[in-house]
C-alpha cells in the first residue's frame, strides 16, 4: 500500500491552507461566529466556488469534484487547524452521504448539485441531541432507542390525506440547524406497534418549523433546537423500506474520519502555537522553551499528535476504523489543548486568549461525539473483544 499523498492531494492541502491563513485568523473566527449564520458566507462562497469544497467527495455527474473521503479529510484537517466555522461537516459530512445513499434519483438530481456548488446547506436533526448513538459511534443504532419511542418522545411522522408527511416533535443540538436551507430529520412513523425510524426532508421555510440557535460552549460549531408542529416533510427515498440505521452508521463512519482529521488539525495547530510562545516567552533570563521540563512536555505532545494524525489518515482510507481514530484524535486534542493553556501561563487562563478556542473545541467535540471511552468500548464490542467466555464445568 502506498501511503504517500498524491500531487493533487498535496495541492488541495496547500491551496486551502494558504487561503485560510489569510482569511481565518482568530479575530476573523470570532467575528464570523457572532453573525446570524454563524460563519462567514463570503468565505464559504469562495471555498465552494473556487475550491469546490462541499462537493469534493461528490460524483462529477452531480457537479462534484469526484474525489474521495481522503481528500475531504485533508480539507477537514486544514479547516480544523483554524477552527473554521462553516457548514462543511453538517452538509458534506452528514447530509450529503445520506441523500446519496437513500435518495431517489430525482432527489439526488435536485439536491446534490446545489450542495456541490455551495448554494444549499443542510443539517441532520435527530431527537434528543443523540447524534453519536444515532450515527452508531457510541452504541448500536439498530434498535432506534436514540430516536425516542412509542407515541410520545422524539419526532413523529404521519401521512396526511394528500399522501404527504406531517412531522411533530423537536430535536436539539442540530449542527448548523439554524442556518441550513434543508433539514434531514429522523422521525418515528408506523404507530406504536410498527414504529420505525425514517428520514424526511424539511425545507427551511416550511410552515410549522421553528429554529432557535442555542448557546454553545464551542461557538465555532453552532447548534440549534428545532421544533416541528405539523410540519410538511418529504420522505427521503422511494419508500419506507430503506435501511435507515445502516445508512446512518455508514455516514457515522465517514463522519468519524472527518472529525478525526479536524481534531488532529486543531491539535497540531494548538501545539505549533504553543511552541512559538515558549520560544518567545522569557523567564529567569531565558526562553521558557529551553527548560528541560518544558521540552519533555512538548515532546510528549508531539508524539501524541503524530500518532493521532496517523490514525486519522488510516481512517480516511479504511472507514471501519473511524470510531477508534476519532477516540484517539479527540483524546490528543484534549491533552494538547489542556497543556497549551498551562504552558501559556497566566495569559493562557484568560478567556479571551486563542488557546481557549481550541480548548473549547476539544471539550465540546467530546461531549457531542464521544466520550472517548464509549467510542473505544463500542469499537471493542463490534470487534468481539468482550465476547462471553464459555462456562467451565467444575
Automatic annotation (TrEMBL):
The entry's keywords: FAD, Flavoprotein, Oxidoreductase
GO MF term list: oxidoreductase activity
InterPro entries: Acyl-CoA_Oxase/DH_mid-dom_sf, AcylCo_DH-like_C, AcylCo_DH/oxidase_C, AcylCoA_DH/ox_N, AcylCoA_DH/ox_N_sf, AcylCoA_DH/oxidase_NM_dom_sf
EC code(s) of this entry: 1.-.-.-
Pfam families assigned: Acyl-CoA_dh_1, Acyl-CoA_dh_N
All copies of domain Acyl-CoA dehydrogenase/oxidase N-terminal, residue ranges: 6-118
Family: Belongs to the acyl-CoA dehydrogenase family.
Protein name: Acyl-CoA dehydrogenase family protein
Lineage: Bacteria, Bacillati, Actinomycetota, Actinomycetes, Kitasatosporales
Amino acid at each position: 500500500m502506498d501511503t504517500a499523498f498524491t500531487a493533487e492531494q498535496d495541492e488541495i492541502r496547500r491551496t486551502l491552507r494558504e487561503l485560510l491563513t489569510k482569511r481565518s485568523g482568530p479575530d476573523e473566527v470570532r467575528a464570523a461566529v457572532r453573525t446570524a449564520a454563524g460563519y462567514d458566507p463570503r468565505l464559504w462562497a469562495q471555498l465552494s466556488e473556487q475550491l469546490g469544497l462541499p462537493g469534493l467527495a461528490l460524483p462529477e455527474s452531480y457537479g462534484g469534484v469526484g474525489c474521495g473521503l481522503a481528500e475531504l479529510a485533508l480539507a477537514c484537517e486544514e479547516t480544523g487547524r483554524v477552527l473554521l466555522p462553516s457548514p462543511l461537516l453538517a452538509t458534506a459530512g452528514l447530509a450529503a452521504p445520506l441523500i446519496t445513499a437513500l435518495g431517489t434519483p430525482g432527489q439526488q438530481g435536485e439536491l446534490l448539485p446545489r450542495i456541490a456548488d455551495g448554494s444549499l446547506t443542510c443539517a441532520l436533526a435527530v431527537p434528543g441531541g443523540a447524534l453519536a448513538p444515532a450515527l452508531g459511534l457510541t452504541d448500536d443504532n439498530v434498535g432506534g432507542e436514540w430516536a425516542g419511542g412509542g407515541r410520545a418522545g422524539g419526532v413523529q411522522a404521519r401521512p396526511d390525506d394528500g399522501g404527504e408527511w406531517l412531522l411533530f416533535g423537536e430535536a436539539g443540538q442540530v449542527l448548523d440547524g439554524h442556518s441550513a436551507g434543508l433539514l434531514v430529520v429522523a422521525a418515528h412513523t408506523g404507530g406504536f406497534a410498527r414504529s420505525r425510524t425514517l428520514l424526511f426532508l424539511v425545507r427551511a421555510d416550511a410552515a410549522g418549523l421553528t429554529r432557535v440557535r442555542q448557546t454553545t460552549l464551542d461557538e465555532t460549531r453552532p447548534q440549534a433546537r428545532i421544533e416541528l408542529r405539523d410540519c410538511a416533510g418529504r420522505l427521503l427515498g422511494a419508500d419506507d423500506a430503506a435501511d435507515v440505521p445502516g445508512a446512518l452508521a455508514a455516514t457515522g463512519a465517514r463522519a468519524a474520519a472527518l472529525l478525526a482529521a479536524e481534531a488532529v488539525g486543531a491539535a497540531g495547530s494548538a501545539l505549533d502555537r504553543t511552541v512559538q510562545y515558549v520560544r518567545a516567552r522569557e523567564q529567569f533570563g531565558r526562553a521558557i522553551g529551553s527548560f528541560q521540563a518544558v521540552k519533555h512536555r512538548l515532546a510528549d505532545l508531539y508524539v501524541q499528535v503524530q500518532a493521532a494524525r496517523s490514525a486519522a489518515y488510516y481512517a480516511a482510507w479504511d472507514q471501519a476504523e473511524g470510531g477508534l481514530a476519532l477516540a484517539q484524535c479527540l483524546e490528543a486534542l484534549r491533552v494538547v489543548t489542556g497543556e497549551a493553556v498551562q504552558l501559556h501561563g497566566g495569559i493562557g487562563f484568560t478567556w479571551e486568549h486563542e488557546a481557549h478556542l481550541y480548548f473549547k473545541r476539544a471539550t465540546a467535540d467530546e461531549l457531542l461525539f464521544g466520550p472517548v471511552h464509549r467510542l473505544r468500548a463500542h469499537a471493542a464490542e463490534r470487534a468481539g473483544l468482550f465476547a462471553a467466555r464459555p462456562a467451565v464445568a467444575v
